[in-house]
Design a protein that fits this description.
Helix content is 20%, strand content 34%. The longest helix has 11 residues, at 116-126. It has helices at residues 28-34, 81-84, 88-91, 116-126, and strands at residues 7-8, 13-18, 21-26, 37-41, 48-49, 54-60, 64-68, 73-78, 100-104. It has a single domain, classed as RNA polymerase II/Efflux pump adaptor protein, barrel-sandwich hybrid domain (OB fold (Dihydrolipoamide Acetyltransferase, E2P)), CATH 2.40.50.
């Protein structure tokens, strides 16, 4: 089930907007595909991020993948708990498994991201 209160990217990140801040994570589909998450390299607090560019790396028993920033801005916080417990992403990708927050440079960038219905259609087209 894809949460309806989030925005989604084609690279399977999600964004939860709240004022000028955005919380970012990877989708349930992404963590399913990756398998057991073993390591995550998050951006540093204060680092500038550009929409569509690499923000970090996530590794699993199957693969390593780049984390792509869904929105431009400055990293406000990171989920430090993932350093010692990256499996939280597998257990709760939309809650305790969040990755980082961004002080958005332009929150309207999120308007170009998919809503839940569009993301579900995108997943269907990917699996064909």
């Amino acid at each position: 089930m894809v949460p309806t209160d989030l925005r989604y990217t084609r690279t399977h990140e999600w964004v939860r907007l709240g004022g000028d801040a955005a919380t970012v994570g990877i989708t349930g589909h992404a963590q399913d595909t990756l398998g057991d998450i073993t390591f995550v390299e998050l951006p540093k607090v204060g680092a500038p991020l550009t929409k569509g560019r690499e923000a970090g790396v996530i590794e699993s028993v199957k693969a390593a993948s780049d984390l792509i920033s869904p929105i431009s801005g400055v990293v406000a916080s990171v989920n430090a708990a993932l350093e010692s417990a990256p499996e939280a992403i597998n257990k709760d990708p939309y809650g305790a498994g969040w990755l980082y927050t961004v002080k958005a440079a332009d929150a309207s960038e999120a308007d170009g991201l998919m809503d839940a219905a569009a993301y579900e259609k995108f997943l269907e087209s990917e699996s064909e």
